[in-house]
Amino acid sequence: MTDENASTEISSDDVLAEVDEYETFRVMNVVSVTYLLPEPHPEINLQEAEAPFRSLAVTVALPDAQAIAMALEGRSSPRPSTHELFVSTLQGVNVDVIAVRIVKQELGVYYAELDLMSPRGQVTIPCRLTDGLAIALRQVVPAPVLCAESVLQQHF
Asked: Regarding the domain with residue range 3-155, which homologous superfamily does it belong to in the CATH classification?
């Protein structure tokens, strides 16, 4: 990789590094998954757990909406989905999902991270918001969904 290419490429780690380490996060509930015709894409509806009860409607792809809806309803596939496999793997190696955090929204894209705790310590990994939600909701006790106050302020 040349210096010229390095300056133009942006990794997800770079995006998450820009997040203020003292950011305030609000607990959000996954309220529903909706698909209203004639809209082309489903939405995941999130709402703050406490006042002022702000909400976010996140447009997602149909397979992502289906995965989250199944997790929200506590249903599993006849054959394990990728999210179910990942959750089983985490449980098998004694890793707990502490939370999924929505850390940034830019140009219509939500950036998220999974906060994990293992016997070796805490690890934070970047993820797609939809994957984070599907994994968090599939925990024995669903992991909380946290949203950065700065993301909520962009909408309200």
From this structure: Bifunctional nuclease domain (3.10.690.10)
Q: What is the DSSP code string of 104-126? A: EEETTEEEEEEEEEETTEEEEEE
Lowest mean pLDDT among 53-57, 74-78, 123-127, 134-138: 74-78
- What lies within 8 Å, CB to CB, of 93 at 6+ separation is 118
DSSP designation for 146: E
Q: Which of 19-23, 32-36, 57-61, 75-79 has the lowest mean pLDDT?
A: 19-23
**CA–CA separation, 141 and 118 (whole Å):** 16
Q: Which residues contact 50 (CB under 8 A, 6 or more apart)?
A: 26, 27
pLDDT at 6: 37
Q: Are residues 103 and 7 in contact, defined by beta-carbon separation less than 8 angstroms?
A: no
Q: Cis omega (within 30 of 0) on the bond before 80? A: no
